[in-house]
Design a protein that fits this description.
CATH topology of one domain: MetI-like fold
Order of helices and strands: HHHHHHHHHH
Number of strands: 0
CATH class of one domain: Mainly Alpha
Length: about 250
């Protein structure tokens, strides 16, 4: 609430900066301004849903891609390396456009803007997630594997009950950074018509002709959202560290 209050105060402060600036367009004290703010905020749900869905998929895919990279088999390691390098080399905006316009022709499937955005964001992020998981798993002491083997745990059980719980605690800050990154990159899905925060701002600019004021509110929206997510991730880190000490 403190962050939101500071953001509102900043908007009101800016409202008096210049008579040439039309802050009335986002003034919550007027019916028109309140309506415009509601319109801008209506894209918040789509931004959050898009980001959470995409990062959930990318975490799963990233883990599946990371495991071959840990194998002693050269072919499996090559599959991991080729995937990671190939996906990371493609700009995310280009990937969004290709998935939305190209994938339906290649795969002969219908796809809406939401799932096109999810697929593109998840695919792009999965390469980074794979490297995060690989580094986290490799940071676990080899003795953990030997101890698991000595009590007859299978490879999958070793990963599930011994290695991954420890690795996730170590890579949690990196996973949090990727969630913040995903929230910001979701704005690029506006180019294919996804009605998220940036798209709503673009539509309002077309009707109100006040880009400075409207995009300032957009900046504040992302600022508040990302600060809240960052605070939540720091709380989760502290909670996991406290549980580990007990």
């Amino acid at each position: 609430m403190r962050i939101i209050g500071l953001s509102v105060a900043l908007v009101l402060l800016l409202a008096g900066c210049s008579s040439n600036w039309g802050w009335y367009v986002v003034n919550p004290m007027t019916d028109a301004g309140s309506s415009n703010l509601s319109f801008l905020l209506s894209g918040l749900g789509s931004t959050i849903l898009l980001s959470i869905t995409a990062i959930s998929i990318s975490v799963v895919v990233g883990l599946l891609i990371a495991l071959p990279g840990l194998s002693t088999n050269r072919t499996l390691r090559s599959i991991n390396r080729v995937y990671v390098e190939f996906v990371r080399a493609i700009p995310i905006l280009v990937l969004i456009l290709w998935v939305y316009y190209g994938l339906p022709q290649v795969a002969d499937v219908a796809i809406n803007v939401f799932w096109a955005g999810v697929i593109a964001l998840a695919l792009s992020d999965s390469a980074f997630q794979a490297e995060i998981f690989r580094a986290g798993i490799q940071s676990i002491d080899k003795g953990q594997y030997e101890a698991s083997h000595s009590v007859s745990l299978s490879y999958s059980d070793t990963m599930r009950f011994v290695i991954l719980p420890q690795a996730i605690k170590r890579i949690l800050p990196a996973l949090g950074n990727q969630l913040v990154y995903m929230l910001k990159m979701s704005s690029l899905v506006s180019v294919i018509g996804m009605p998220e925060l940036t798209r709503k701002a673009n539509e309002l600019v077309v009707t109100e002709y006040r880009p400075l004021e409207i995009y300032t509110i957009l900046v504040l929206e992302y600022l508040v959202l990302i600060l809240i997510v960052s605070a939540a991730m720091r709380w989760l880190e502290r909670r996991m560290q406290a549980d580990e000490r007990q």
